[in-house]
Amino acid sequence: MKIVYEPKKCIGCGICASTSPAHFKMNKDNKAELIKGKKVKDNCELEIKEETQEIKDAVNMCPVQCFKIVK
Ligand code: SF4
Predict the structure, then answer these.
(1) pLDDT tens digit sequence for 45-67
(2) Phi, psi for 58 (deg, rounded to 5)
(3) Which of 21, 32, 33, 51 has its CA 20 to 30 A from that of 13?
(4) How far is the CA of 1 from the centre of ligand 1 (A)?
């Protein structure tokens, strides 16, 4: 299972980073980053063992749908 993140869509609201600081952080350009994620083409991906409630909340609260959970 993995989180797929499309950085181009990010509007820098910071919700993901404040909801799940273990997985998301804001960078100096005020864009979200997936902590320990790897770059795959234009996206960033992070393997996860399970979709915790915290991850679900962060993914669902992004106002511009930057994230997808791929199983
Ligand atoms: S919630 Fe979405 S728009 Fe807001 S900082 Fe995170 S990725 Fe960017």
Answers:
(1) 999 999 999 999 999 999 999 99
(2) -60, -45
(3) 51
(4) 20
Q: Report CA(29)–ligand 1 centroid distance (Å).
A: 12
State the Cα–Cα distance between residues 52 and 40, nearest whole angstrom.
Answer: 23
Ligand 1 atom with minimal separation from the 12 CA: 5
Architecture of domain 2-70: 2-Layer Sandwich (3.30)
Across the beta sheet with 67-70, the strand order is 38-40, 43-47, 2-5, 67-70
CA 58 / ligand 1 centre spacing (Å) = 9
**One-letter identity of residue 15:** I
